[in-house]
Amino acid sequence: MADCEAKLYPNCDPDVWLRSCEEEVTEPVEGVITGELPAWLRGSLLRNGPGSLKVGTMQYQHLFDSAALLHRFAIYGGGVTYQCRFLRSETQRRNRAANRIVVAEFGTRAAPDPCHTIFDRVSALFKPSEVLSDNAMISVYPFGDEMYAFTEGPVIHRIDPVTLDTCERKNLTQCVAIINHTSHPHVMPNDEVAVVIVDNENTSRDIIVQRRRKGLQRIAETHRSYDALQYPLIFLHGEDGYHFNIKQIHPKNGIETNKKVTSKEFYAYRLMIRDNEVYNHILNTRRLFQQFLVDMYAKIEAERMLYIRLNQKKLRTEEYIHLRDAIVNDGNIDDIGTMVILPSSYIGSPRHMHEYTQDAMTYVRKYGRPDLFITFTCNSSWPEIKEQLKYGQTSMDRHDIIARVFRQNK
After folding, report:
1. 186 marked ligand binding residue
2. CA 79 → CA 41, 72, 75, 84, distances in Å?
3. Cα(195)–Cα(186) distance, integer angstroms
4. Lowest mean pLDDT: which of 10-14, 235-239, 265-269, 347-351?
């Protein structure tokens, strides 16, 4: 076994990865330097990774499970100092309070939590993001002048880049419906466009227009004139955008059907690259194209959320097992409130992630615990991406091509 590991990882000492750190280094410690550092080199290097492998008498069974440990290397005047602090996550607090592993991790099963009552377990069914581990031990990512510790889950932690104190815990599910960040980010040196929308029943993205004689008029985002009014540089001639009354056309006989076109189908049609199309100016507006994409995607998600909210009976949400069990066990339906349940077909919803978890556990039951954790990322310099770019464009101007090529190679 040792010979096999040496051949697979000739430059890796497994003892380094499997060691357990039990003490923090709160005050900077001078490091011993081999060689010489240039005097002009100065700054801080922040790292995040596995720390303590033990909780009481229990031990984590996988490297990805150990308590997050933050590291800071401060370089100044030809010298280097080092310090480290444990991330003060809710998972660490619960484990230390119980003196055992009570929060399940990637490869470690949790023990029963003596501080967790039956009511806590029932209420946790409605807040799955609060039950999952928030042990953010994968990376550190900057947002403006703030630093955050990341993991694959929806909870991130703001940390002090100097003292490594844990300053704030943020659950992103309270802000956005879908968590689409990565814990292995690749920071690009450009200014991309993004949108953050806090969804509630009163959220409105309509346009208010001042008419010449009749005062103000509200233009809903599903109005046929919304796109032209919001993006006059793209729709120079005031072309109609998406609205609810667009009917699908039968592809063979060209006759209009009774089925309506969804916003997703409409904008996918507008953005499609066709061989017989001479010029699609929408694809050549660079930063404005990016803004148009994220804005229309927000419209698509808003339409889906509205349909789910208005069709809870059609989706048979009253049959969902967690909701039914909570009503039977608690006996007071008024405590649950008016909840909109997202179906498993909604990507990123709790039920969708629960299905993924069940699939993963099925593989583990049949084949055993995984040995490798493989991620697949996209390289914007792939030749099949560059071949589709127009003159003067970069890959950052055409996220639609990047998404399609990544989907094709996935």
Report:
1. no
2. 9, 14, 6, 17
3. 19
4. 10-14
Q: φ and ψ at 337, to 5 degrees?
A: 85, 180
Q: Which two tokens stand for residue 14?
A: 């497994």
SS3 48: strand
Residue 95 near residue 103 (C-beta atoms within 8 A)? yes
Of 357, 326, 321, nearest to 120 by C-alpha is 326
- pLDDT one-digit tens code per residue, 330-372: 445 454 555 677 888 888 788 888 888 888 889 888 888 877 7
**How far is it, in rounded angstroms, from Cα 293 to Cα 267?**
9
Q: How many CB atoms lie within 10 A of CB 365?
A: 8
Give the phi and the psi of residue 91 in degrees, each rounded to 5: -60, -45
Query: Tokens 């909870």 map to which residue?
Result: 155
Q: Is 155 exposed, middle or buried (0-12, 13-18, 19+ CB in 10 A)?
A: buried
Picking from 42, 62, 44, 66, the residue whose alpha carbon sits closest to that of residue 53 is 66
DSSP 23: S
Q: Give the model's pLDDT for residue 5.
A: 47
Q: Using CB atoms within 10 Å of the CB of residue 66, give its burial: 0 to 12 exposed, 13 to 18 middle, 19+ buried.
A: buried
In this predicted structure, the answer to whether residue 166 has a pLDDT above a threshold of 90 is yes
Q: Are 317 and 323 contacting, i.e. CB atoms less than 8 angstroms apart?
A: yes
Per-domain residue ranges of the chain: 2-174, 189-310
For residue 36, what are the contacts with CB-CB under 8 A and spacing of at least 6? 78
How many CB atoms sit inside 10 A of residue 98's CB? 20
In three-state secondary structure terms, 378 is coil
Packed helices 287-310 and 399-409: angle between N→C axes, nearest 10 degrees = 60
Q: In this structure, are residues 226 and 219 in contact, taking their beta carbons and an 8 Å threshold?
A: yes
Binning the chain into helix, strand and coil, the percentages to the nearest 5 are 30, 20, 50
Say how far apart CA 53 and CA 66 lie, in whole Å: 5
User: Model's pTM, two decimal places?
Assistant: 0.53
Q: Is the CB of residue 169 less than 8 Å from the CB of residue 89? A: yes
Name the phi and psi angles at 317, rounded to 5. -70, -20
- Give the pLDDT confidence score for residue 85 in this predicted structure: 94
Residue 218 has pLDDT above 60, yes or no: yes
